[in-house]
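Bumping my old thread because nobody answered last time. Still need a sequence for this structure:
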């Protein structure tokens, strides 16, 4: 019976690990932003994070076109990630920043996707990923 439980536990762990590793972004930007926006980093790994300690990472982009770049919409589907970005146009040759903060209120691995729509391709979003692992919550000592 112990062997069966061990086998099932290992199989489940392997499936979860494979699923997490399989979630990666396409390296190529196949939107109409290609040739107009240089994405410096579309994936940021926070590493290990203490439970309950928010962690912030920045995603940078450079306008390599001859027109102003506008970040029309920056969103995520998780309320656990807050986003900040400049709503001002990014002139040609200049760099913009999106700041993503994960609240770290859940233990374990996390993979959060951020979608960005620009004026160069307003109908197709460019995905960004914020990943890491939140340490286990420390239980308060009762003093006994």
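Sorry it took so long. Here it is:
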């Amino acid at each position: 019976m112990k062997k069966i439980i061990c086998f099932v536990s290992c199989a489940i762990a392997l499936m979860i690990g494979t699923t997490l590793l399989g979630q990666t972004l396409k390296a190529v930007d196949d939107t109409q932003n290609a040739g107009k926006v240089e994405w410096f980093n579309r994936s940021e790994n926070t590493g290990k994070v203490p439970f309950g300690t928010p962690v912030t990472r920045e995603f940078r982009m450079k306008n390599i076109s001859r027109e102003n770049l506008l970040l029309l919409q920056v969103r995520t589907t998780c309320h656990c990630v807050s986003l900040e970005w400049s709503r001002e146009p990014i002139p040609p040759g200049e760099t913009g920043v999106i700041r993503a903060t994960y609240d770290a209120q859940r233990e374990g691995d996390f993979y959060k996707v951020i979608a960005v729509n620009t004026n160069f391709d307003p109908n197709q979003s460019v995905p960004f990923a914020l990943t890491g692992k939140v340490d286990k919550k420390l239980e308060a000592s009762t003093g006994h």
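Confidence is low (pLDDT under 50) at residues 6-22. Let me know if any region looks off to you.
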